[in-house]
Amino acid sequence: MTDNKRDLETRLEELTSQIRTLERRIEQLESGEGRIRAVPDKGPSALSAEKADSTAAEKPWTMGGMTAILSRIATICFLLAVALILRTISDNGLVSMQIGSFLGISYSWLLVATGWFLYRKSHQFAPIFAISGAMLLFSVVLETHAHFGALSSLTAYPMLMIAGTVLATISRWQKVAVPVTLATIGVTVTSLPLDFPNPIIPYLALILLFVNIISYMAMNIPRSWWLRIFAMLTTMAVLTGWTFKLYVVLRRGGQLPDTLYQNWFFPVLMVFVIFYITTSYLSVKRFRPESARLYNSLLPTVPIVWIYLDMWLVISARGAGFAAVGIMGVILSVGLFGIAAYLARKAENKGSGVNLFAFPAAALLALSLPSLLGKFVYAVPLLSGVALGYGILARRWKHDGVRITSYILQASVIIATAASGAFSVKDVSLLAGLMAAAVFSAISYIHFGRSRRFGPIAESGFFAKFDKKDRTAVILFLSSLLGAFIFLRIGIYGLLSGMQGDLANAFTCAQSIIINIGAIALILMAYFRKDYEIRAVAITVTVVGALKVFVVDLLNAQGVPLVLSVLSFGVAAALGSVVLGRWHRREKSGV
Question: Taking the model in full, what pTM does it have?
């Protein structure tokens, strides 16, 4: 019995050893090593020691865990003590400020170099030396430059870049996230207050570009994906702050001081645009699995649109140059679309990254085309046609992401135009407004019809997970209805403006009559087509008509127009009741 028990224990230990061997191999795969080295099997005696160590690591309150924690704390204390000794020597005047700064910087570099050496040896103290050295270096550079002036900007900024390069290299060679994370955050946080509140923009822009580069190079390092987002958001915040400084001075009509570096504004912003486009393309080609993630899908749309809005804001403060910014935006949009088309044609790419560039191309075109043409209403038909073209290309490229982009573009065009007041009956030209609304309504309806004839691929992505029946396409139908309503609204206003009487009263009720007639047309269309989507839209429009009549008209209108408004809704409600009743009986009879 005792022998059997010992055999079972021996077998259990062997199995445990094999499991730990597999775990180590999996960890090597996750760390990105190109090949798997043979992991020596451990016997029962070594296994028991390993088990004790792992238990101590997992439970810091045990004796082994406390030993590891205290040893690290002791190391930090010794390193800090040396730094404080050097600081005390400098503060007491035993050496000059320049020599004290040199000693502090040299000591911090020594710690970083020691951390690199320990990383190569896989030593447990490697992060402590690297982090301590980097933090000491950043603090010495900041304090020496900002407080004592012993370090010039021309020296401080390159020193930060060198430190960031060394830390990023450690991470890249050793496949660890701590050094590059510290480099990205430390260099950024240290550089921002160096010359505050009047930073040297060329130097600061170079630092931000450097931070974006090292965060991009860390893409294939585990747990480093968020560094690109941090670098991008920090860059956008700094550029926006610069933009608002220029905007405030230009709006007041004052003279721009040299500290705002006006001549550097557009070149710096274009450098970042080119950088984000290039790195997004390289991300698709080199890091294809990463490029499909949500945080990478923000690039390049967010920074490019953000930067374009910064440019537009400065131009608006000047009051001139809208056409030039519009041309620049259109050119960038065409370039982004060209990259998307190139990726779609590459067979080995399998459509990866297409919408990564198709979406910002559409967004940038929607922003820049009105600036180029001078009025938003002129751009509406062209943008609607582009949205339809995206829908056609989505089927040709077999890419549902582009299909979703076409939906968003088609809907956002009419909503943004209407919300901006471009279709205001008092401001818009009658002919231009009628033509733009009519063309948009027609194109949107054609787009909707195509979406119903040719469904999505739905192999993966949005349609496969959330909308297999493509119910989202009803956005196109609603956009078409909104365009038709705007067309009729402008036309009715043109007719009423030539008549005598209370124009505002008549026009308010006329819009309600248009909505109610539309509800009647929709419910009849849904009934004869047996279309449940259109039926739902018809019911929605009827509810809108009811709110318009009983909430707006009854409180603001009067006379014959109010009577016609209420009567039109009564007809729509009665017809809707009859049609829905017949629809219900038809469903019960199975016809």
Answer: 0.79
Task: Decide if 508 contacts 553 (C-beta within 8 A).
Answer: yes
At 267 the pLDDT is 93
Angle subtended by helix axes 354-373 and 301-318, to nearest 10: 10
pLDDT of residue 543: 95
State which amino acid sits at residue 247: Y
Instruction: Return the closest-CA partner of residue 212 out of 240, 183, 177.
Output: 183
Whole-angstrom distance, CA of residue 396 vs CA of residue 19: 49
Cα dihedral value 548, 551, 553, 554, nearest 10: 150
Give me the count of residues in the chain: 591
Q: Tokens at residue 426, please?
A: 């008092």
Are 489 and 511 a contacting pair, CB within 8 Å? yes
Peptide bond into 197 cis (omega under 30): yes
**Pick from 27-31, 35-39, 344-348, 360-364: least confident:** 35-39
DSSP code of 259?
G
Q: Find out whether 525 and 499 touch, Cβ atoms under 8 Å.
A: no
Angle between helices 354-373 and 265-286 (to 10 degrees): 150
Task: List, for residues 435-482, the tens digit of each pLDDT value.
Answer: 999 999 999 999 999 999 998 886 667 788 888 888 899 999 999 999
State which H helix or E strand residue 81 sits in: helix 63-91
Q: Residue 504 pLDDT more than 60?
A: yes
Residue ranges of alpha helices (H) inside 192-293 are 201-217, 226-251, 265-286, 288-291
Residue pair 568/557 in contact (Cβ under 8 Å)? The answer is no
Q: Is the distance from CB of 378 to CB of 413 less than 8 angstroms?
A: no
**The predicted structure's pLDDT at residue 193:** 87
Residues 6 or more apart in contact with residue 517 via CB below 8 angstroms: 568, 572
Q: At what angle do helices 126-143 and 178-191 cross, to 10 degrees?
A: 10
